[in-house]
Amino acid sequence: MGVLSQLSPDLIRRRLTSLFPAELIEDIARERDVVQRHRRIDVTALVWTLILGFAVGGESRTIAGFQRAYAAATNQTLSRSSFYDRFTPALGQLLSNLLEHALEVVAVPHTLAPQLQQFRDVMIADATVFRLHRLLSEFPATHPDQSGAKLHLVHNLTKQTIERFELTDERSHESSQFHTGNWLRGRLLLFDLGFYSYRRFALIEENGGFFLSRLKTNANPRITEARRKWRGRTISLLDRRLQDVLGDLTREIIDVTAEVSFKRRPYGEKHSSATMEFRVVGVLVADTDDYHLYITNLPDEFTPEQVAALYGVRWEVEVLFRELKSLYGLEKFQTSNPAIVELLVVAALLTLTVSRALLGVFQRMHLETMFPRERWAKTFRSFAQLILEDLAQSFGHPPPNLAELIFCNARQPEKSRLLLSERVAEAFKTEVRA
C-alpha cells in the first residue's frame, strides 16, 4: 500500500487542468470565435470530450459518438444538428493552438544512454498513411477511387512527445515535409530510407546537427579513410568503392569515411555539384552473412555496434503510429468533410499528448516502476470516459442521469422515420385502400 497511498484521487484531474486550464481554453475559443454564437455548449467540456473521446470512441470516431460522450459527461443533451454545427474550422484552430501549447510543456522522463545526453534532443522523422472517405478528393491516394492522408511526424525521443507534424494527401512524399534549418543544431535525427538524401545530410551537418540513416542498398560511395586499424593481412579499402569490396569482407564490422556526391539546391537555373565525406558503418548479421550498413556523422565515440543499436530505436515511432491507429482510430474517420478530417487528426494527436502527459506524472512519482508504452495506452483508453466525467464534474456539471441519457440516445430521432414493422403495416394499409 506504500505506493498506492501516494496517489491522490484528484491527481489526474490536477495534471490535466494544469495542462489546459479552463481559462486558457475559453480565451482561445473567444479569440477564434468558437463560442461567439453558441453559448449553450461548454467549450471546455467539448474540448476534453474530443481529446478523451478518441480513447473511448469505439470503432468509428464519429461526431455522433463524441456527442454521446459529451452528454454522458455533462448530463446535457443537445440536438444532433446543434452539436454538429460546432465542428468548424474555428474549433480546429482552437485544438491546433492547444496542441502547440502542450508540445512545448509536456515531457516524459525517459532514460537514455549517457552518450546521448550530449545532444539537445534525439528525434525520429517518419510518416504514416491512413485511409479516408473515398469522396474526399482533397486527399488523393496512390490508387484510383480512394482517398488517403499522410501524417508526417518528428518524434522527440528525449521528451517522448511530438516535435512537429504535417498532414498531407497520401501522394506527398515524406521527404518533402522535412525542412532543414538552424533548429537542427545539437540535435540527432534518425531517418528511414524515405528521407534518404545526401543534400539533406549535408545541410544537417552544416546546421550543426547530427543524423543516422540506413545506407541505400545501391549506394556506392568512395572510401577515403579506414577509421580503425586491423591486425594481420587485411583487404585495403582506401580509395575503393564500397560495393566493390563488400563481397570480399569477413570482418564483423565496417567503419570507414566515404565520399558522396550530390547536387545543391538550384540557384537561378544552375545546380552546382558538391561532395562531402560521411561515416559509413556496417555490422555483420551472423544469420545472413550480410552487413547492415548505416551512414552518419556521429563521432567515433559511438562504436559500430552502438550505431546499429541506436538505429533500432526508430521502432519507437512505429509504436506511436500503432497507438494512433489501433487505439485512437486514426484510420476510422467516417466523414467526407476535409476540415473535420484535419480537426480530428489534431484531436487524435492531443489524445496521444495528454496520455503521455499523464504517463509523465506517474513516472516522475515512481521512477522505479516500469510503464510499457502500449500497456499504458490501453489502460488510459479503458479509463478515459471516467476521466472525462470526473473533469466535467469539476467544471460544475452534475453526475449523469443515466435513464435520461439512454432514453434520449435510443429513441427514434425523427417522428417521420418509420420502423420496419411500421413500414410493413403502412404498406398493407395502402393495399387495403387500393
TrEMBL record:
Write one Pfam family the protein is assigned to.
Answer: DDE_Tnp_1
One GO MF term on file is:
DNA binding
InterPro entries named among the record's database cross-references? RNaseH-like_sf, Transpos_IS4, Transposase_11
Q: Which GO terms describe its biological process?
A: DNA transposition
- Determine the domain of life of the protein's source: Archaea
Instruction: Give all residue intervals belonging to the Transposase IS4-like domain.
Output: 118-352
- Kindly state which keywords UniProt assigns to this record, in alphabetical order: DNA recombination, DNA-binding, Transposition
Q: Give the family from UniProt.
A: Belongs to the transposase 11 family.
Q: What is this protein's record name?
A: ISH8-type transposase
